[in-house]
Design a protein that fits this description.
Length: 310
C-alpha cells in the first residue's frame, strides 16, 4: 500500500509539473500582478521650486494622465522577473517581449482592469473568493519560474551555484526587486522601501525555494524535480492564500528567523541601543555658551557710548 501510494503521489507530481501554464495560469498571474499595481496610491511631496506640492501619481491617476507610462508599469509587474534574469545571464533584456501572445494577453488584462466600463472587470477579479483562486494560480507560475531559472542557469554554468540561486531568485521575485524602478515611472522615489532591505514573504520564499532547487539540480537534495515543484507549490499556495484571506503581512518564516538569526548573526544589544540614544541626546542637548560676566557687559556699554558721542 505504501509503495502504491508513493507511486500515485509521484505520478500526481509528474502530471502537475507537466501541466502547461499558458494561457490559464499566466492569465491569473497577470491579473494579480496588475491588481497590485492598481492598489498603488498617489501622494503629495514637496515641490523643489515651490508654489505648491508636487503630485506623485498613483496607479489610477497615472493611467488617466499617461496611459503609456501605466502600460510600462504593468509590463514591469508582469515581466520584470524575465528582464532581470536575462540581464544576469547576459541575454537581451527585452527578449521575452518577442512572445507576442503573452504580451498581448498582459496588455488585455491591464486594459480591462484600468479601463473597463463601470470597473466591472476589476470588481469581479478583486472579489475575495475569486481573487484567492487567482492568487493560488499565481504561485503555480512563481514556482515554475524559479525552477526554470535554476535549470537555465545550470545549463549555462554547471558549477555556478550562486548564479543558479541568483537567477532563480530574480525569476521568482523580480517584480518586487524592481519596485524602486517602477516607482520612478510614477514620479515616486522611496529608497527606504528597497525590497532587499525589507523582504516580503514572496521574496524570502523565492530565495529559500531557489536554494532548494539549486541543491536538487546539483544532486545534493535526493528528490525529483517534479516532487519538489509539487510540494513547494503546495506550501506557497497555502501560505499566500491564508495571508491574502486574512490580510496578514506576517511572514511564516518569522518564528524560525527570530530563533536562528540571533545565534548566527547576533542581535542589537541594549547597551548599543542605549549608547546610540545617549549620543543623540548629547547632540540634541548641547550645553549653552557661557554667559558674559558683569565686567564684560559694562565694558561693552562704555564702548558703545563712546562711539555714539564721537
Amino acid at each position: 500500500m505504501e509503495v502504491a501510494g508513493a507511486l500515485q503521489l509521484g505520478e500526481l507530481a509528474a502530471a502537475f509539473a507537466a501541466l502547461p501554464v499558458f494561457p490559464l495560469f499566466d492569465t491569473a498571474y497577470f491579473i494579480v500582478s496588475v491588481l497590485y499595481l492598481k492598489y498603488e496610491p498617489g501622494e503629495c511631496g514637496p515641490a523643489p521650486l515651490a508654489a505648491r506640492p508636487a503630485l506623485r501619481l498613483g496607479a489610477v491617476e497615472m493611467s488617466r494622465k499617461s496611459p503609456f507610462a501605466s502600460w510600462l508599469c504593468a509590463m514591469l509587474h508582469c515581466f520584470g522577473s524575465y528582464i532581470l534574469a536575462d540581464l544576469l545571464l547576459g541575454e537581451p533584456p527585452i527578449a521575452y517581449f518577442s512572445n507576442n501572445s503573452s504580451v498581448i494577453l498582459a496588455t488585455a488584462v491591464w486594459y480591462l482592469i484600468f479601463f473597463c466600463p463601470m470597473n466591472l472587470f476589476y470588481k469581479c477579479v478583486s472579489f475575495l473568493p475569486v481573487k484567492l483562486i487567482f492568487v493560488a494560480m499565481k504561485e503555480v507560475v512563481r514556482v515554475r519560474k524559479i525552477a526554470a531559472g535554476v535549470h537555465h542557469a545550470h545549463h549555462r554554468y554547471h558549477h555556478g551555484w550562486f548564479i543558479m540561486m541568483a537567477t532563480g531568485w530574480v525569476k521568482g521575485s523580480g517584480v518586487a526587486l524592481m519596485s524602486n524602478f517602477e516607482q520612478l515611472l510614477r514620479g515616486v522615489w522611496k529608497p527606504e522601501t528597497n525590497e532587499i532591505l525589507h523582504m516580503s514573504f514572496p521574496t524570502k520564499a523565492s530565495l529559500y525555494g531557489t536554494i532548494l532547487f539549486t541543491l536538487q539540480q546539483t544532486h545534493w537534495l535526493p528528490i525529483s524535480e517534479a516532487n519538489l515543484i509539487f510540494f513547494f507549490t503546495m506550501f506557497m499556495i497555502v501560505c499566500k492564500v491564508f495571508m491574502t484571506a486574512t490580510h496578514s503581512h506576517a511572514s511564516p518564516f518569522a518564528p524560525v528567523e527570530s530563533f536562528i538569526c540571533p545565534v548566527f548573526f547576533g542581535s542589537i544589544s541594549s547597551g548599543d541601543t542605549n549608547h546610540q540614544h545617549g549620543a543623540s541626546h548629547e547632540v540634541s542637548h548641547a550645553p549653552p555658551p557661557p554667559a558674559k560676566s558683569k565686567e564684560e557687559l559694562n565694558e561693552g556699554t562704555r564702548k558703545r557710548k563712546a562711539k555714539k558721542a564721537e
